[in-house]
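Researcher: For the annotation table, I need structure tokens for Isoprenylcysteine carboxylmethyltransferase family protein. Please keep the output clean. Sequence:
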Amino acid sequence: MHPLLIRALAVALSIGLYLALAILGAGGVNAYFANQARTALVVVTLALGAASLFVGGNLSAGLREDRGNRWVFAAFFVIGLLGAYLPAWADRQGLWRLDGDAVRWLGVALLAAGGALRLWPVAVLGRRFSGLVAIQPGHELVTTGLYSRIRHPSYLGFLISALGWGLGFNTAVGVLMALANIPPLVARMNAEERLLSSEFGAAYEAYRASTARLIPGVY
């Protein structure tokens, strides 16, 4: 089977499961799509999923991998399932509501912006971008563009999009689910930086000293 077709099937299954859980949490198809902002969340999610097929990246262990970090996949999987269902359920229950449709549409905008930021580094790195913490053949230290200011723009995009999804349901439960991604994400960044430091030595340490992990001046 062609690699692109395999990738398309994987993306379709993951997005299908994610959206199905949200629809279930909202009380069914009609209840979910009764709100335009929630409908927009689906449109943006599908568009980002389609775009992800063409930006590159892989799941190769490459030349050298930190296998001890693979536990984060299980953590992200569980958080993802809960993050798909619970905000929609809380929205239906009226639990911890925020401030109306303005919050919902802010969520849609953040989902789109964060998703684009998530995909941009993948497009820049291409086959060097792996879902695993690994050194790839021809691996180079990229320090231009967004990488000149922050070391993990893709992870920043991931957090922004997770927050956007949560806000799209107008409930603080969605915000809490987005924040739940931070501990495994920090563990992932720690593992990546250890591996890159061992590979690039002083060059990476100098780069790390002059940049922020996610937000300049903050972290």
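Researcher: And a one-line annotation?
Model: The longest strand covers residues 64-65.
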